[in-house]
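Appendix B. Chain record.
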Amino acid sequence: MIIDLPSTSTSAINKALVDLRDSGGAVALGRVLTLVVITDDAHAEDAISAANEASREHPCRVLVLARGNKRGAARLDAQIRVGGDAGASEVVVLRAYGPLVEHGETTIVSLLLPDAPIVAYWPGTAPEDLRTDSIGRIAQRRITDSAEAANPARALEARRASYRAGDTDLAWTRLTNWRALLAAALDQPPYEPVTSITVAGAPDSPSTELLAAWLGAKLKAPVTRARTKKGTGVQSVRLERKSGAVELIRPDQNVATLTQPGQPDRRLSLARRPVKDCLTEELRRLDPDEVYGEALRDGLPLVSKQVVSVREAQSRGKLSSPVKAARDQAAAEEKSARVSRAMKRATPSGAEQRSRSSAVPNDEVAANSPTHGKRAARRAAAGAPEGSGPAQEAAATAATAQESAPPAAERATAKTASRTTAAGRTSAQGATAKKATTKKATASRSRTTRSAAAGAPAGGETA
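Structure tokens predicted for this chain:
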């Protein structure tokens, strides 16, 4: 939701905020700070977009002071943004014209959140001395961006000359990943002191200057600043030690290669950080950044002592060729892509391998299954060796099936056996009776034959 208030005043803006909260409840009150963005009309939308993204992690009231033309009558145009047009914050855009351009503090003071810290952010050109600026005096944190200045090197020197606790620069925030990788590399053995430092980067890159200043102040070693083409940012860092050099090279502004003695080369994602990420990181802490102050005050004077070209640094052996690093990265990426494609196209070599891959469980999973003990007992009872395959286990299971039959099956088997035994006994008795009858008939015929031969009556009776 966007509400325009042309030719207004700060009291009318406050009344509109209260009415908007009472009527729609769109504006919440849980704000942790007030972010004041000082810019011009040309860069206001980019600054608002970055502030909206940062407010999703740090809910705040965003006051954008867009300074217009100093000529003409004094006029204040306002715009209130809430809801989807303001992220997790409420945005008040103030466009001042005429004499109001020079009175930014009085313009925003009535819109500040009570009892909340104030953070001032200059996304473009910042004042030469933040200590004397009207908004810089009332802010607990002051964030500038030397990379957006017309002369970054001069802006960095101005920051050093007017530094006070609470100042910071997004050129320093962009180095967070570089500093983390280099510190992690030096935390690994061998723990040897660094004898020399070489930092290569563009001449218009204040981040390169701050990185070289930080390394020189912390490692207490001579620093060589090698200059590359404009617009390339930080390109490489080389730390010389007795056992070998630690080198971090970023030839394509996206992927870097970390080289350490006794370890394989590692490719790391190291893209340039957007403004919204840097601003979000700076809003996480409202206390002074002492490390930035040390690098700015103590390390920056060490950088200007040795400035050479990249070709000269390479001829001295202080820097590796970024062209070779880019070629090695391309070869490594192509190799990785070939391996990935081969793995996707790979299939099991035969039916047996497919069957095993789909039917045979993993040994550890099978050993931990509840039925593993029962299967092992059946294999032992059937005489199957330990570790036998599925066929042997099936044979063992069939051999022991009778023993593991349930009681009902046992009763059915016993009943069938009883019937078979009774039928056998009946058959045996019939055969015995038949034999006895046959024997009796044979004996009768024999007696009749003997009687006839002796003249006795056929019935076998005697006188």
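Further analysis of this model is presented in Appendix C.
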